[in-house]
């Protein structure tokens, strides 16, 4: 049997005899179980509520009765943000992005109802999810498990005995790493198995693109992340003169990485790139709609121009002579113009969000916790980019709906006789129901290159550090 | 103070200032505290700016209306403005009034839910529910991360400082072999320990009070009549909360385990109180009291009459509305002229009347959640302290629910103002502009009781953990 194997076996044996690892493991298990069960309950509750209401809204749309298409476009419909299956693993931003949006002509409503608003300020402490346990608590478990693994050998003098037997530092360190990795894996195995079963056996495949791949990527990234903490703990233990010092250093790292830095970065980004208030945002859009982008043309000027263009094109003197209802055309032109203005302002707003988040991405190069947090949300489909993808799809659907209504109005109604024409069920049926498919995983991951680099780089850096420290190590510290 | 006590304090001070690491920690925490105050104030200044901006918009809107009565109407635009200013048929849904929840002077110290909830609304006489649910713009990622305010520094970071200072007391003496020397002294070991803890307590609480006083003074004047009580209570909170953590640490140290054990146990408690208990409470609340906001979404739909040129339908709607508002039905004028705007006004008001129960039920659900969670807050003194602090500076959920409650009556006031004129066919005169509806926030009466209850509970917890430590030490000493 190799030396590394022997060391690892001894380490596991000692850990099992000491109750600490068992107790800590049990606590983590309980938390994982609670997180898993409640995560599933929340998912199931919200999923069924959303599916049901979405169906009701569809019925309402179809059975709205005969009315003018433009009134129907104002009657509009609602879209609710579907819960992704993996959101039961990582709630991500779900509590802070709105859940429903009203789609109507002329006006882009923002998402309403952030679930966090239904809670007291306690919600700001965070919700228990599998992701929280794995990102925050398990690293602490690793620290508690491994901080004294080498310092203890040193303090009790067994290190000297080991070295004198011809065992090298490399063998000791990697043996211990193997043992702790094994212990950790056996504690976390249920999560891995659970994720895999969920990904490959559930029928929710259709709702979430690349569910299997996402789950595997989640497992891989968390493995790398936790391996980072394992390496860090063992390296610090290797370098420290006493267990107490190792613990102090590791706990400080943990607090800086998981508590202090994320908040600081987010708040600094908030100060650097300031978000306008909703009132300002809306006022700017209204201003541009009335006077054109950069004050170029007023609404009546634009309408006059459009009219002239159509009169010339069809060689007629009056809009009433056009082979279609000009009101429908002008309505759609107004809609297109409004959309352009909105796109302009929304893009500016999103750029602010991106810049704020980019700062956090840069910070993740220094902080693997930030890296895993962003990646985990991305894989679970609860991050900002997936939300924006969803927002875009919804807006696209709204535009299509309004366009179809205006088109129908132009084709079938008569100029100036608004109330005479009514469309019916046939037209409502033409509008397909809104369905949403999350983007492919690679499409989302491309936004998180820095985070991927961070995770990999940190593990490599620590491997190198451990390797070199081993070479330089002496059995007694003076 | 006897000689021995003085000596102990003297030596502890020497040890303390020689330990660079501890000094560094203290300094870094102080800087973090200053940054937190700065960040909180920047956030609140932004909000105040927004409030000023929207009030200015309202001011200029109404100035235009007012001046349209006196100036000569030359352009079409001016005429339109005068129509909107004087004819209730236009005015009722175009005149917007802002209801504002101005931040408490000390809101910068604990931002609470202020970044998540709307603190200003523009209300017209249209259906309240069209106007109630729009959110403020925010980066959801940053909302999730939360604010780096002074409350965060006090609630999250101060306990860590206390742990860092205290976990080695007694245990490290034992580990360094000083304990045996201490034991032969006339002063008992636990008394020495208590005095040393008291030194650190003074130091940490001193830092907490210093930061708080800086924060209080730079955010508002604590000596003003409406501010002195919140300021005083804030300072008491700092003392009580630190006392709890020192008590807890004393209890842990009293078990006379190794310093590593103490550190693990103390950090474990920190984890329990600051992360696990709140996180578990939150998911339990979510699953136990499911709230379905999707049902409310429907209220924001801009529906209108089925057929706008059907006079019978319009009259039916108006009549139904007048049943709820008999005072408007007194004159016959209600059913003449401007039928379409009247019907529309009646329609949106009826919408509010019909759906009030639904909305009330929803917010009752939110309150039930809050109450349930409040019943278990004692499980985590840290979460409890956070709740108390946000309550002191009026940034808690209750304040926002109260604000939304007041919106209902303000909205009623606006509706009454316009509808009385619309339904009696009276134009709006220049004089009417002197008695426009004004929003005034009636303060929540029983603000302080839950705060004192919270402080009392945490103080009890502090006494409890301290007593455990004290008894444990006494018992060991007798052996």
TrEMBL record, chain A:
Record keyword Transmembrane helix present: yes
InterPro entries noted in UniProt: DUF3526
Keyword line: Membrane, Transmembrane, Transmembrane helix
Domain of life, source organism: Bacteria
Transmembrane segments: 21-43, 128-150, 177-201, 213-238, 245-262, 447-468
Keyword Nucleotide-binding: no
Entry-linked PANTHER family: ABC TRANSPORTER PERMEASE, ABC TRANSPORTER PERMEASE PROTEIN NOSY-RELATED
Protein name (record): ABC-2 type transport system permease protein
Lineage: Bacteria, Pseudomonadati, Bacteroidota, Cytophagia, Cytophagales
Automatic annotation (TrEMBL), chain B:
Origin: domain of life: Bacteria
Transmembrane segments: 21-38, 150-172, 193-219, 231-252, 264-285, 448-471
Pfam family of the protein (one): DUF3526
InterPro entries reported in the protein's UniProt record: DUF3526
Keywords: Membrane, Transmembrane, Transmembrane helix
Protein name: ABC-2 type transport system permease protein
């Amino acid at each position: 049997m190799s030396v590394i194997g022997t060391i690892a076996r001894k380490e596991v044996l000692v850990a099992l005899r000491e109750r600490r690892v068992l107790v800590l493991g049990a606590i983590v298990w309980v938390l994982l179980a609670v997180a898993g069960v409640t995560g599933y309950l929340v998912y199931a509750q919200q999923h069924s509520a959303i599916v049901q209401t979405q169906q009701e809204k569809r019925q309402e749309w179809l059975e709205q009765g005969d009315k003018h298409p433009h009134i129907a476009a104002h009657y509009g419909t609602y879209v609710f943000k579907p819960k992704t299956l993996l959101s039961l693993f990582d709630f991500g931003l779900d509590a802070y992005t709105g859940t429903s949006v009203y789609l109507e002509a002329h006006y882009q409503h923002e998402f309403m109802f952030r679930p966090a608003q239904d809670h007291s300020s306690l919600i700001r402490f965070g919700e228990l999810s599998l992701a929280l346990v794995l990102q925050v608590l398990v690293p602490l478990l690793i620290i508690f498990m491994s901080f004294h693994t080498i310092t203890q050998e040193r303090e009790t003098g067994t290190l000297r005995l080991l070295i004198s037997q011809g065992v090298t530092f490399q063998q000791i360190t990697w043996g211990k790493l193997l043992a702790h990795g094994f212990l950790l894996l056996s504690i976390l195995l249920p999560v891995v198995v659970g994720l895999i079963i969920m990904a490959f056996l559930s029928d929710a495949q259709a709702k979430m693109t690349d569910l299997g791949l996402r789950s595997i990527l989640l497992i891989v990234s968390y493995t790398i992340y936790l391996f980072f903490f394992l390496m860090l703990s063992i390296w610090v233990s290797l370098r420290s003169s006493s267990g107490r010092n190792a613990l102090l250093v590791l706990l400080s790292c943990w607090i800086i990485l998981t508590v202090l830095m994320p908040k600081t970065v987010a708040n600094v980004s908030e100060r650097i790139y300031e978000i306008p208030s909703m009132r300002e945002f809306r006022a700017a859009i209204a201003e541009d709609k009335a006077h054109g982008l950069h004050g170029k043309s007023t609404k009546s000027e634009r309408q006059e121009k459009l009219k002239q263009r159509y009169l010339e094109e069809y060689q007629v003197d009056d809009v009433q002579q056009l082979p279609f209802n000009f009101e429908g055309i002008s309505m759609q032109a107004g809609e297109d113009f409004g959309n352009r203005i909105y796109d302009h302002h929304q893009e500016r707003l999103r750029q602010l969000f991106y810049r704020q988040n980019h700062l956090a991405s840069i910070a993740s190069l220094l902080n693997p916790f930030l890296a895993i947090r962003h990646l985990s949300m991305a894989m679970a489909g609860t991050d900002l980019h997936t939300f924006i993808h969803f927002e875009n799809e919804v807006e696209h659907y709204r535009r299509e709906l309004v366009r179809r209504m205006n088109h129908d109005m132009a084709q079938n109604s008569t100029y100036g006789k608004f109330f005479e024409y009514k469309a019916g069920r046939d037209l409502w049926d033409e509008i397909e129901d809104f369905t949403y498919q999350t983007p492919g995983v690679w499409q989302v991951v491309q936004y998180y290159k820095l985070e991927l680099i961070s995770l990999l780089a940190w593990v490599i850096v620590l491997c190198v550090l451990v390797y070199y420290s081993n070479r330089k190590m002496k059995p007694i510290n003076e | 103070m006897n000689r021995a006590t003085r000596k102990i304090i003297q030596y502890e001070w020497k040890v303390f200032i020689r330990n660079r690491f501890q000094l560094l920690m203290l300094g870094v925490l102080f800087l973090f505290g200053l940054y937190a105050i700065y960040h909180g104030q920047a956030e609140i200044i932004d909000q105040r700016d927004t409030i000023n901006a929207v009030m200015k918009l309202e001011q200029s809107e109404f100035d235009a209306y007012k001046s349209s009565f006196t100036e000569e109407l030359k352009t079409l635009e001016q005429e339109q403005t005068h129509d909107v200013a004087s004819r209730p048929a236009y005015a009722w849904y175009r005149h917007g009034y802002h209801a504002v929840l101005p931040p408490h002077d000390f809101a910068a110290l604990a931002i609470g839910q202020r970044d998540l909830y709307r603190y200003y609304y523009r209300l017209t006489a249209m259906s309240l529910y069209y106007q109630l649910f729009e959110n403020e713009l925010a980066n959801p990622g940053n909302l999730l991360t939360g604010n780096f305010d002074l409350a965060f520094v006090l609630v999250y970071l101060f306990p860590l400082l206390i742990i860092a200072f205290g976990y080695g007391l007694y245990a490290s003496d034992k580990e360094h072999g000083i304990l045996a020397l201490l034991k032969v002294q006339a002063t008992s070991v636990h008394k020495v320990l208590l005095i040393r803890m008291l030194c650190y307590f003074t130091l940490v609480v001193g830092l907490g009070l210093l930061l708080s006083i800086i924060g209080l003074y730079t955010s508002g004047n604590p000596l003003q009549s409406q501010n002195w009580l919140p300021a005083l209570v804030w300072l008491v909170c700092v003392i009580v909360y630190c006392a709890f953590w020192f008590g807890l640490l004393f209890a842990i140290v009293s078990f006379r385990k190794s310093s590593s054990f103490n550190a693990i146990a103390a950090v474990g408690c920190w984890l329990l109180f600051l992360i696990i208990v709140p996180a578990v409470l939150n998911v339990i609340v979510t699953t136990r009291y499911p709230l379905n906001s999707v049902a409310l979404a429907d209220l924001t739909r801009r529906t209108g009459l089925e057929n706008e040129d059907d006079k019978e339908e319009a009259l039916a709607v108006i009549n139904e509305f007048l049943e709820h508002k008999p005072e408007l039905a007194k004159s016959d004028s209600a059913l003449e002229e401007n039928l379409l705007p009247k019907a529309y006004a009646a329609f949106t008001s009826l919408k509010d009347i019909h759906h009030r129960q639904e909305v009330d039920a929803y917010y009752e659900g939110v309150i039930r959640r809050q109450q349930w969670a409040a019943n278990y807050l004692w499980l985590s003194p840290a979460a409890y302290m956070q709740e108390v602090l946000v309550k002191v500076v009026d940034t808690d959920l209750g304040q926002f629910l109260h604000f939304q409650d007041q919106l209902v009556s303000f909205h009623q006031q606006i509706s009454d103002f316009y509808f009385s004129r619309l339904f009696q066919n009276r134009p709006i005169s220049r004089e009417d502009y002197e008695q426009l509806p004004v929003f005034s926030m009636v303060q929540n009466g029983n603000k302080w009781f839950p705060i004192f209850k919270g402080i009392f509970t945490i103080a009890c917890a502090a006494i409890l953990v301290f007593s455990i430590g004290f008894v444990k030490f006494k018992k060991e000493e007798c052996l």
